[in-house]
Amino acid sequence: MNNHVLKRRKVRAFIIIGILLLMLYGKNLLERQSFRSISGTFTEVYNDRLVVEGYIFKISEKLFKIQKLVDHCDLDYDYSKVINEISEHEKAILDIVVEFEATNLTEQEATYLTDFKKIISEDLNIKNYNLLYTDSSGVNREQVKVYDQKITRAQRDLDNLSKIQLEEGEKLISKAKVLINRSQIWAQFEVALLIILVVVMFLLLFRKSESSDREMI
């Protein structure tokens, strides 16, 4: 075989090998980025959705306790310190809200959380026990009804926030599935490139050996 032709084939083969190696390197870079995205997605699911759902549950518990105190549900309960207890529950709720606000909020979440915070800090900020109860007339049903409506509205905000966690969590999981499927495709692509690389190297070595044998003959 003509040395010039053989040399040209070698150069072509090395170029192909070089291109394949570059493609493999590029694929590895993309796969690393994809794995970082998957990791970031699952971290977001945990930090901004599952943890937040825990915040909502704790807030709901404390809101329920406030409603029981406002409604005077327990007849055997000593209500002499009820205003302080309601205030403590509200402070605990607002502390949780601060942690909630530090998460990655959607626009809807921010709206519901702002409304909820306003209800707790302003509308349910009871300063005087006489607004709830007096010895002469007992439970002030009209005022308690007003507070119950505020609590219902606050609970509605929490329900909406909880729904958002579910919706956003589903979006993030769908995103993770897309990234995982993409990684699987890239893995198959890598296998195909490696097969092509092996074939090219085999042909290069085989033809070189075949050419050498012919020259010896």
Write up what this structure looks like.
- The chain has 217 residues and is mainly α.
- The chain is built from four helices and two strands, in the order H-H-H-E-E-H.
- Strands 1-2 form a two-stranded antiparallel ribbon.
- This is Chemoreceptor-like protein with four helix bundle sensory module.
- It comes from Algoriphagus aquaeductus.
Précis, in short:
This protein has 217 residues and is an all-alpha fold. The chain has helices at residues 3-71, 82-101, 107-123, 141-216, and strands at 133-134, 138-139.
CATH hierarchy, class: Mainly Alpha
Instruction: Report the radius of gyration as a whole number of Å.
Output: 34 Å
Spans of at least 5 consecutive residues whose pLDDT stays below 50 are none
β-sheet strand percentage:
under 5%
Which architecture name does CATH use? Up-down Bundle
First CA to last CA: what distance?
Answer: 12 Å
Order of helices and strands: HHHEEH
At the fold tier of CATH, the topology name is f41 fragment of flagellin, N-terminal domain
Strand order of the largest sheet: 1-2
Number of domains: 1
Secondary-structure-based class equals: mainly alpha
Largest sheet, strands/sense/barrel: 2 strands, antiparallel
Net shape: rod-shaped
Helix tally equals 4
Total strands: the figure is 2
